[in-house]
TrEMBL record:
Protein name per UniProt: N-acetyltransferase domain-containing protein
Organism domain of life: Eukaryota
Keywords: Acyltransferase, Transferase
UniProt xrefs under Pfam families: Acetyltransf_1 (PF00583)
Source organism of the structure: Arcella intermedia
Length: 133
């Protein structure tokens, strides 16, 4: 089951300078969003793009909106010449739809983290990543 965010969550993200947020609309209806930020790998020092959330309303899925949002985030990094080599994210292990989507987009599961989420069941997460260079 996907996590549900309130509109105020997205409004607050749009105001932050250290994050990248793109919204998708269809006929003035808010149908999707991607929220991401640049993070520095503690071990290697390399910059990574962390996808905090990527969501598309169920009736608007399978029209390429999620792919377009992901492409927009990647292009924004390239256009700003930020030396990001990897995109990564986490997803609930039971969210088979999201896992299938990310695999189609070239992501691979890199690890599983037990009890990652505090307020949702099951609390386990997969971490997925994709090289972009």
């Amino acid at each position: 089951m996907p996590v549900i965010y309130h509109d105020k969550f997205y409004a607050a993200l749009l105001l932050k300078n250290d994050q990248f947020t793109h919204l998708a609309f269809f006929n003035d209806i808010f149908v999707g969003a991607i929220c991401s930020r640049i993070e520095k790998d503690e071990t290697t020092g390399e910059l990574k793009l962390y996808i905090m959330t990527l969501a598309v309303l169920a009736p608007y899925r399978r029209f390429g909106i999620g792919k377009k949002l992901l492409d927009m985030a990647t292009e924004q990094i390239k256009n700003k010449k930020i030396p990001v080599k990897e995109i990564y994210l986490n997803v609930q292990t039971s969210n088979e739809t999201a896992i299938e989507f990310y695999k189609k987009m070239g992501f691979v599961i890199t690890r599983e983290q037990k009890d990652y989420y505090k307020n949702i069941e099951p609390p386990h997460a997969y971490f997925l990543s994709k090289n972009i260079q």
